[in-house]
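Title: Prediction job returns without error message
Component: structure pipeline
Severity: low
Priority: P3
Assignee: unassigned

Description:
Job completed but the reporter wants confirmation the result is attached to the right record. Sequence as submitted:
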Amino acid sequence: MGAVALTAASFTASATAAPAPTGQDHRATQEAMDAAVEAGVPGVAGQAKDKYGTWKGTSGVGNLRTGKPRSAHDRYRVGSITKTFVSTVLLQLEAEGRLSLDDKVDQWLPGVVRGNGHDGTRVTLRQLLNHTSGIFNYTADEEFGRTFFLKDGFFKHRYDTTTPEQLVRIAMSHKPDFAPGTSWNYSNTNFILAGMVIEKATGHSYGEEIRRRIIQPLGLHATSAPGTNPKVPQPSSRAYGKLAETATGPTYDVTELNPSLAGAAGEMISDSGDLNRFYSALLRGKLLPKAQLAEMKTTIKIDEIPDAGYGLGLMERKLSCGTVVWGHGGGIHGSSSEALTTDDGRHSLSFNFNGDWSGDSEAVIEAEYCAK
């Protein structure tokens, strides 16, 4: 596919928004979405749900070639938001007595976490879910980056299938980041392993268990774990990336890719309405018993992000106005998303940028929850 070399100004489309229900004004959120487009994001699509109803907002375009605007009902790749779904399934299995979060990884995946100082007999399932395992992050491997994140490699390998075992082997070719339980570092390998444990414990793929346990009960009709299918179902917009070390240079259409490169760490597709329904149900105790939800919400402080903590596939953030929100962000080629809700699950926000190199998602979140 050819490059789409447009400046931000040339694809700033007029914003569209559904009227806000009486009692809640989302103008600040709309303005923050518009600002992201001004900063270079092709388009933004999102929905907020609170006691006054559902607000739908968009800005910019979903297709740089045709100028077609984004839709608030767009489906998109949610990247690491997948992690909350995976963690929920593992916690459900714990509640059913089929495994314990204190089980060692080696108990479920003998010999898989081994090499260069990695030792699966010392890492617990809990340490996978809260990123305290010390296991090397396979997406930080230089060769993997050249193969899937830079232009020449991406266009050559975008349809390649990678297996979870291959991704873990990449991680095992490096030394651990630290001894298990002694520090915190975000590692996609942790959730590739979590997906493998789900399969070992249930006999089904992690995607099948998510469908059976979360997608179907909640009626999440736009949500899927696509496996190796490279397409994003309609309605959807195109996704754009720079495929370079820097945010300058040409823009490429990166919509189609084999999501097995992200697997249980980030392959899922959803839309803003479904994500709001999922996180609201989760925080309201509809998916997990009290004990497991409390475990999920037990957080570790993240030095890199002030006023934030990481639980089990779930992040806690204290915003500038004091409001606490729970959720997760997700980035994958051409797609940057956020999904979160308040502690009581009553005020939810999910949105997506269809570009991966600019835009301030934090400003959109602050605008929704903290604007006067």
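Comment from assignee: result matches the submitted record. Confidence is low (pLDDT under 50) at residues 1-22.
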